[in-house]
Design brief:
This protein is of the alpha+beta class. It has two domains: 125 residues, Nuclear Transport Factor 2, Chain: A, CATH 3.10.450.50; 126 residues, Nuclear Transport Factor 2, Chain: A (Roll). The protein is built from eight helices and twelve strands. α3 packs antiparallel against α4. The radius of gyration is 27 Å and the shape is elongated.
Length: 289
């Protein structure tokens, strides 16, 4: 009996490597240039992480149609304009790094389809933030070079509870940065379009807020938040809360506030793939007890 089993095992063993080799050959036949396409994708993501316009120019075909996760459809001129308009990252400023996971490639002669999970990891005042997208790109090979002719990006939604926690963390970090006059952290937490409107209807842009805090013309000695409530609407969040605040120095009043006061605030944040950022805030002094 043992001899029969041993003989059966010997007879079966050669089949396993053969099947593995067959599977490998089948994969190679499905995408014979998978290694080259994978290298191209990874080189592009490394360049996109540093906002390299030359890398973008080499990667996208002139006629590419790009559909973003927000439903915006653009061509190569729009892509290149956005890349070149982006401000150069400042030394030490938080940056977003893009990597690819679960890469799947199908090749049909001089046409190939790459599907993968795009992972964006960014740092900021509220700590590392990770976003995930399902991307599919169609590539065409011309004159020996592969270029993307179509692209579709779909954001992978995270659990609602996780998103709410991220929003609470971001708004708390924003208030800490204002209290500490930490303009570097604040620059990462507030979008360039950020506007703060007070109860008198006066508006302050992000640039103005950074300038006031950085110059010491605005200084908070107290800025605590309570009763924070978050409402999520896709990639947009609305935060409502109560804060106890006191300014040691404020524009036009070197002595600041004589005593702490209570303010009601509404903060709007958006998530564009690099963490939640504040785009607008409304605050009003609460009258009475």
């Amino acid at each position: 009996m043992k001899r029969m089993l041993s003989l059966a095992i010997v007879m079966l063993l050669p089949g396993a490597p053969a099947r593995a080799q067959t599977a490998t050959r089948a994969a190679a036949a499905t995408a014979p240039e998978a290694a080259e396409l994978t290298r191209l994708l990874k080189e592009f993501l490394a360049g996109a992480s540093r906002n390299d316009a030359a890398v973008h120019d080499r990667f996208w075909a002139e006629e590419v149609v790009y559909t973003g996760s927000a439903g915006r459809r653009v061509g190569k001129p729009d892509i290149m304009a956005d890349v070149r308009a982006a401000a150069a990252p400042k030394p030490g400023a938080p940056a977003t790094t893009y990597t690819a996971e679960d890469i799947r490639i199908q090749q049909y002669g001089d046409t190939a389809v790459i599907a993968f999970r795009l992972v964006g990891t960014s740092g900021g005042g509220s700590g590392p933030h990770v976003t995930s997208y399902l991307n599919t790109g169609t590539f065409l090979k011309r004159n020996g070079q592969w270029r993307a002719v179509a692209w579709q990006a779909t954001r992978t939604p995270g659990p609602a509870g996780e998103a709410s926690r991220d929003v609470v963390t971001a708004q708390a970090a924003l208030h800490r940065a204002i209290l500490a006059s930490d303009v570097k952290a604040l620059e990462a937490l507030a979008d360039e379009s950020f506007v703060w409107t007070d109860q008198a209807g006066e508006q302050m842009t992000r640039a103005e807020l950074l300038d006031l805090l950085g110059s010491g013309r605005l200084k908070y000695s107290k800025l605590d938040t309570t009763d924070v409530a978050v409402s999520l609407y896709g990639d947009t969040a609305v935060v409502r809360g109560v804060s106890q605040r006191q300014r040691a120095v404020s524009p036009g009043s070197p002595t600041g506030d004589a005593a702490p006061f209570t303010a009601l605030y509404t903060l709007m944040l958006v998530e564009r793939g690099s963490g939640w950022k504040a785009v607008a805030m409304q605050s009003s002094r609460k009258e009475g007890p």
